[in-house]
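Q: Okay, next protein. This is Putative transcriptional regulator from Actinospica robiniae DSM 44927. I've checked the sequence twice, so it should be correct. Can you predict the 3D structure?
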Amino acid sequence: MPIVVDIDVMLAKRKMSVGELADRVGITPANLAVLKNGRAKAVRFTTLAALCEVLDCQPGDLLRWEA
């Protein structure tokens, strides 16, 4: 899939664990792992907004297109 999810990059920048992010966003660590590892087929705007709020970033910091 040409859409790359950079959650791990933002987690490293914010020095935050996957578990902490999952707790603060309100999704399961398993679902966050699916999104983080690029296996998700879709993401809800509400989830993306929550990720951006917790990580203090823009959607473009988390998602990018790569040919």
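A: Here is a summary of the prediction. The two ends are 9 Å apart (CA to CA). The chain has one domain: 3-55.
Q: Noted. On to the next one.
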